[in-house]
Amino acid sequence: MIKIVHFSDLHFGSGERYGSLNPEAGLNRRFEDFIAALDKPINFAVDNKVDLAIFTGDTYKHATPEPVYQREFAKRIKKLSLNKIPTILLVGNHDVLYRIDGSDALDIYSTLDIESVTVFNRIELKNIKTKNGPVQVISLPHITKSRLLAKKEYRNLSIREQDKSMIEKVKEALKGYLEKLDPLLPAILLGHGAIETAQFGAEQDLSIGKVLSYPLSFFQMPQLDYVGFGHIHRHQVLQEKNPLILYAGSLERVDFGEEKEDKGFIYLELQKGKAKHEFVSTNPRKFITVSCDLTCSQNLQTDLENEIKDKKQAGAIIRLKYKINEEDTGHIDQEKIKSILSDSFALVIQSEIVRKDRTYRIAELDTSLISQPLLALEKYLFDYTEKEKENLLKKAKDLISLLD
Ligand SMILES: [Mn+2]
Q: Among 19, 40, 288, 337, which residue has the fewest nearby CB atoms (within 10 Å)?
């Protein structure tokens, strides 16, 4: 049996807007959270003497990280190396610099040739030795178009045709390596990218970028015992067995969109024909949204305070959203609210002010035009040029005709 730790999507440098500077360490406190999150799989690997550690890409926020991010990542890779744990680093889209030289943020680890560290930056098949026997690894890192685009015959294809032809190439390459696998040894496929049936998390803020999207069927290959992916930050299992296919998910929350997603890494026990996995939470920093509608409230301050006291937790990143009538805004004691929430890790207050006597920006545009949408639109477009107006009205007519 081979014991494996699989973690992914570290993104050092992300989410720091909710962190302040720790003057003693000189580091952003959210960065310290991200470091602590990375320590979880690393320490788990060392403490449990696992046979193999796998990272499936997106090390930093982008491919030209500040030295401090590189240093803290390198320390943990060194720890794995000192403990003689073979380590796989697979290149993600955030690790790649879109230049013709094809360099990436993990290059340094292959260049330094660190004992027991293997970097995968293209599709290939390698045997990785572990103390409990070899594992066959097929790699599918983030694939860039630049090499393909350099070839003349692809230059005139549309983006969709280029994607299609790249997917086809990936399929061919994978097929070739699947045929080469030794059926007696455990085999895994490690990827960074999107799989069509996967559910995206809340990564918009990271602008996870456009990557190729593969059909799940590419990986439903019985020759494989495990398919471990990175890129999508929400941990999810796409197929339970033959083979087990999953996203490890990211290690820390970046934003409120991930408030309800747990974060962690995968512990895997692998044998030929069998993969047993467990999701281990990193206990990421809590994000809590407190929402309160005060527009019908008689005791604004008390109602708001009660809602906060009910939901708050020390050490969490709190977003307080309250809705209030314009004339009541003076009744909220913001300083008191801040002092109640002073044990938060970070605090964001968003108030939505409801104005009663709403005057229309365009005087003629009122409810009397409700049955004449085109006329209403024409009035709404008063500050557009005649040509733009004509164009937009034509489009509106087309849309309306579709409704008939
Ligand atoms: Mn990615």
A: 288
Looking at the domain assignment, is residue 395 inside a domain? yes
Domain final residue, candidates 281, 309, 343? 281
292 Cα to the center of ligand 1, angstroms: 35
Distance 78 CA to ligand 1 centre (A): 23
For 33-65, what is each residue's pLDDT tens digit?
999 999 999 999 999 999 999 999 999 998 889
Residue-wise pLDDT for 368-392, tens only, equals 888 888 888 988 888 788 999 999 9
User: Within 13 Å and on the Cβ side, how many CA atoms surround 96?
Assistant: 25
Residue 154: CATH number of its domain: 3.60.21.10
Number of domains in the chain: 3
Statement to judge: residues 124 and 216 lie in one domain: yes
CA of 193 from ligand 1 middle (Å) equals 6
**Both tokens assigned to 365:** 């545009």
In terms of domains, do 249 and 376 share one? no
Ligand 1 center–CA 90 separation, angstroms: 11
Q: How far is the CA of 201 from the centre of ligand 1 (A)?
A: 12
Structure tokens at 195: 């799989």
Task: Report CA(209)–ligand 1 centroid distance (Å).
Answer: 7
| 112 and 250 both lie in a single domain | yes
Residue ranges making up the domain that contains 258? 2-281
| Spacing, Cα 92 to ligand 1 middle (Å) | 5
Rounded distance from Cα 58 to ligand 1 centre (Å): 5
Angle of the 67-82 helix axis to the 29-47 helix axis, nearest 10: 10
CA of 283 to the centre of ligand 1 (A): 22
- Final residue of a structural domain among 230, 250, 281: 281
Residue 276 sits in the same domain as residue 313: no
The Cα–Cα gap between 88 and 53 comes to 6
Cα 207 to middle of ligand 1, angstroms: 9
CA of 145 to the centre of ligand 1 (A): 15
The answer to whether the beta carbons of residues 243 and 227 sit under 8 Å apart is yes
pLDDT tens for 155-204 read: 788 888 888 888 998 999 999 999 999 999 999 999 999 998 888 776 54
User: Are 125 and 137 in contact, with CB atoms under 8 Å apart?
Assistant: yes
Whether residue 362 is contained in a domain is answered as no
